[in-house]
Amino acid sequence: MISMFRYANALPFNSTSSDFYPQMVSSIAEAGPGVRGPTAKKLAELHLEAKVHDVDKHIVQFKVLRLVDSDDNPQWEFSSMQ
Question: What domain of life (predicted)?
Answer without folding.
Answer: Eukaryota
